Each structure stands twice: as C-alpha cells, then as structure tokens.
Amino acid sequence: MAIKAVKVSVFTWEGLDKKGNKVNGELNGHNPALVKAQLRKQGINPTKVRKKSISILGGGKRIKPLDIAFFTRQMATMMKAGVPLLQSFEIIGEGSENPKMRKLLDDIKQSVASGHSLATSLRQKPEYFDDLYCNLVDAGEQAGALETLLDRVATYKEKTESLKSKIKKAMSYPIAVVVVAFVVTAILLVKVVPQFQSIFEGFGAELPAFTLMVVHLSEFVQGYWYIILAALVALYLGLKRIHKSSEKFRNWVDRAVLKIPVIGPLLYKSAVARYARTLSTTFSAGVPLVEALDSVSGATGNIVFKNAVNKIKQDVSTGMQLNFSMRSTGVFPMLAVQMTAIGEESGALDSMLDKVANYYEEEVDNMVDSLTSLMEPLIMAFLGVIVGGLVIAMYLPIFKLGSVV
After folding, report:
1. Which of 208, 303, 317, 394 counts the highest number of beta carbons within 10 A?
2. Per the record, a Pfam family (predicted)?
3. Gap between the Cα atoms of 246 and 88, Å rounded
C-alpha cells in the first residue's frame, strides 16, 4: 500500500537577525507557521514568510471578482478582531496562493504605508475596485467605522457574485446542450450519412424527399464545412465586437433579453435584486439617497433599469418620495414598491430594501433550480428530434424497400 507523501513547498522569507540586521532567503517547509518556527530556532525573527510561486506566462491566474469578495471578507474579519490595517494586508497576502493577488495586496499596503487612505489606495486599482466599493470604504473611513463598512461591502460582494453565478448557471446549461447537438449533428452528417449514401446508390430507386434533403445537407457540409465554421466564428466575433463598441446595440440587447420567455423573468428579478441590494448597502453606509442612486444605476446591469434609476434620481432630487418615483417608472414590481414605501414611512429604508433583495435573490435561486429541472426533459426531446430525425431519414429508404418486397 502506497503512503501519500506530505507536500513540501518552498517559502521565501524576510526577517531580522540577532543584531537587528535585515536578512532574507528561502526555506523548505509544510506551511508558513513551521517555517517561522524553524527561523526562530536559527535566531532569526521572521517578519514576512510567503510561499514561492512559479511564474508561467504571466505569473499565475487572474484575479476574479470572487477573489476580491473573499479578500474583503477577510479584511472585515481581521479589522473586527482588532488587527491593524497594514498587518491585515500582510497576513492575507501571505495566505494567498495567487501571485497576482499577493502583488495587488502588496501594492495597496505600500500605498497605505506611504500615508494614503485605504479608499485612495483602492482607487489606484480601478480594474479591481469600482467606484461603489471605494465610495463605501471612504464613507467608513470618514465615519471611523471602517470594520463595519467592510463587513457590509463583503456581504454586498458575496451576494452579488452569488447572484451572477446563478445567472451564469442558468445560461450555460442550454448553451452547452446546443453546442453538443451541433457537434453530434455535424459528426452524423460528415461520417455516418455518407456511408448510407453509398448503400442507397445501389438501390436504383428514388429516395424519399426527407432522405434526399438530409443527403444534400450532408454533401453541403462535407464540401463547405470550413466556410460554415469560418462564418460561425466570424459571426460570433463580429457580434462580440459590436456589443463592445456600440452602445445602441447593447441597449437593444438589454431590452430584448427581458422579453425572452423564461430567461427574461429570471434576468428581470436579478436586476431588481441588484438594485435593492446596492441601494440598501450604500444607504445604510450613510451615503445620501441621491448620491446612492448614482452607484445603483450602473449596478443593475440592464439599460432598462439604468434609465429607470436615472429618472428616479431626478425625481428624488426634486423632493419626490422614492416609492412614488419607482411606481411612476413602470419598471419595478409592486412588491418592491410597497416594501420601499413601508421602509420610508417607518424610517427603516435600508432594512426593507435588504429584505427586497433577499426575497428576489431567493426567487432567482428557485427559478434557476426550476429552469434546470424543466430544461432536462426539453433538452432530451431536442436531442432526440435532431438525432432521431437523421436516423429516420437514413432508414426510410430501407423501410420503403422492405414494404415493396
């Protein structure tokens, strides 16, 4: 029986010797704690120990939004535990296995150490920390409640990324099935149909119209498969480029997807959840409502809601209540409007918006589960029609020949 070996990693370290001089080097070990213990036995006081990374074509995997959410939660936990800000960055950096994440945290730490505020330091990395994130951190620093705001930001990021993950799950399943159906159909047309075609030529009889259609389709795919493939790739890249460069096209897509059966209601509820979650987080942080709506307009992820939020901002700035403005847009569901009205009347708007966000996030979760269950039989039927249709087309001449005999 083979015994599994305990993994030993290489760690780089920095520290102070007995004379107080800075020293550094590399040491093998199982984890940072054991490496620090070894260094202390050697009379060295370690100040920094981190796992050595192997840089391959860019130095590690890219930083994802989920990584930022996890970092925010770690920061909130450490700040609540009373760990100093700079030390929190050091501890989190040492524990990260992603070299790019360690580099990001080290850059922010150096900026803070040089005298900049945390919000200012985060604004230097706009590709990872958006305006909403930085504004909330800034509000926390100004109010002297950074740990509380970081906890709210962490919850916001976790909920937002969870919602995005559910939407991606709902979208990726049918797309994957369509791709599989396309590949299976292509294989049948290129490899299987020609075999039957050679058999049919020996019949000397007229083939059924359905079979002839499949045979002609097979000949077309065999002769022009490279053109078809190039056209599909060009179409995909073209649409992607247009979507990126044309705001008008993006707006049209945003409006169109809300009208798609099943998918539309799912995206609609996710947009309502993002609106309520973002507004609740910013308003509870002490950001004035009009300013909070600035952050909300870009967070909904859909032009229909963005336009509605911009209208709400104009109405609220003139003195109109939030729930009246929401109702006038005709975009928001009545439940969200009524709960907002209750929140405004009771003086607990952030709490009621948080409940609206929780409700619609749960609705999205249930819809994704239901959609997955509904899609399974539909997908089986879809694949059955595609593959079964090709099989029937190939066997029709044989059945016809058998009836004649």
Report:
1. 394
2. T2SSF
3. 42
Residue 9's SS3 state is: strand
Tell me how far apart the alpha carbons of residues 169 and 176 are, in angstroms, rounded to a whole number: 11
pLDDT tens digits for range 80-94: 888 888 888 888 887
Q: Residues near 96 by Cβ (< 8 Å), separated by ≥ 6?
A: 102, 105
Helix axes 289-299, 303-317, angle to 10 degrees: 170
DSSP string, 218-238: HHHHHHHHHHHHHHHHHHHHH
Residue 403, pLDDT score:
52
pTM here? 0.68
Distances (CA, A) of 335 to 310, 346, 352, 367, 397: 21, 17, 11, 18, 60
Highest mean pLDDT among 118-122, 170-174, 176-180: 118-122
Alpha helices in 300-348 (DSSP H): 303-317, 322-329, 334-346
Q: Quick one: residue 370, left, alpha or beta (phi over 0 = left, psi -120 to 50 = alpha)?
A: alpha
Mark out the alpha helices in 246-288 (DSSP H runs).
247-257, 263-284
In the chain, the largest separation of any two C-alpha atoms, in whole Å, equals: 104
In Å, what is the CA distance from 165 to each residue of 139, 182, 404? Answer: 28, 26, 58
Give yes or no for a contact between 142 and 163, defined as CB atoms under 8 angstroms apart.
no
Average pLDDT, the chain: 82
**For residue 365, what is the enclosing H or E element?**
helix 349-404
Identify residue 205 by its one-letter amino acid code. Answer: A
What torsion, rounded to 10 degrees, do the Cα atoms 80, 81, 84, 88 define?
-90
Rounded Cα gap, residues 296 and 289, in angstroms: 10
Which string of b and e fits 368-381 if b means at least 16 CB within 10 Å? Answer: beebeeebeeebee
